[in-house]
Amino acid sequence: MSEFKNVTIVKKANVYFDGKVVSRTVKFEDGSTKTLGYMMPGNYDFNTAAAEAMEILAGQLDVLLPNSQEWVAVKGGESFDVPANANFQLKVHEPTDYCCSYFK
Question: pTM higher than 0.85, yes or no?
Fold first, then answer.
């Protein structure tokens, strides 16, 4: 899906890591939520509350998922899932555009 219809967008940005990771929250009529964001190159450590699927729209990164010892390369057009209440790490190699979907 290249666009969303009938949504509410939260104007205030979610800003992390001194502005190197920024996203906007998109709310859907069914109560679901996504964020659309952009990450600059760097190493990042994230914690989840809800389970999430991270779709990489453009760019390239490596992800270290919970309970894994191996970094996995992910590029534009690919995605990965992270369980709720977990920690994951990213090594972003080039500016990266993403869409994150959250699940209850």
Answer: yes
